[in-house]
Write a structure and sequence with these properties.
The chain is an alpha+beta fold. The protein has a single domain, classed as Nuclear Transport Factor 2, Chain: A (Roll), CATH 3.10.450.50. Helix content is about 35%, strand content about 45%. Helix 1 packs antiparallel against helix 2. It is globular, with a radius of gyration of 15 Å. The model has no long low-confidence stretch (mean pLDDT about 95).
Length: about 130
């Protein structure tokens, strides 16, 4: 195995771990972890077209306005280029958002991560509806 491949595999593993930490923090409403995993410049796009800042995203999770009971990620693909990574996956979730009651969603997600001071942070997220 050549060295660049080994380095890329390590970076892909790091990004995969950060994505799993994000998934778990969203389900657990763990605002401390969400704050650590997201860039100050976060742009968080919903499938409805709604855009949120880091503060708005974390606030919605904290208050239950966006309440994920469970999140399953499938068909995940991770690519790392320098200090930037993209993650695409299908998110299937059970939700219980305030005022909307129990529901389920299935979304195509694009995450853009940047490595900042040795740690991967989410810079951008965009969701689209999938059949």
């Amino acid at each position: 195995m050549d060295k660049p491949f080994a380095q890329n595999a390590k970076l892909i593993s790091e990004v995969t771990q950060a994505t799993e930490q994000l998934r778990k923090a969203m389900v657990d409403a763990d605002t401390v972890t969400l704050d650590k995993l997201t860039s100050a410049e976060l742009t968080y796009g919903h499938s409805s077209g709604k855009l949120q800042t880091k503060k708005e995203f974390i606030s919605d999770i904290a208050t239950g306005a966006s309440d994920f009971v469970s999140i399953d990620l499938t068909e995940q693909q991770v690519k790392v280029v320098g200090n930037t990574a993209t993650v695409r996956h299908i998110l299937s979730a059970a939700t219980n958002d305030k005022g909307k009651g129990p529901s389920t969603v299935k979304l195509g997600i694009l995450l853009v991560w940047i490595k900042n001071k040795g740690q991967w942070q989410l810079l951008a997220r965009q969701a689209v509806k999938v059949p």
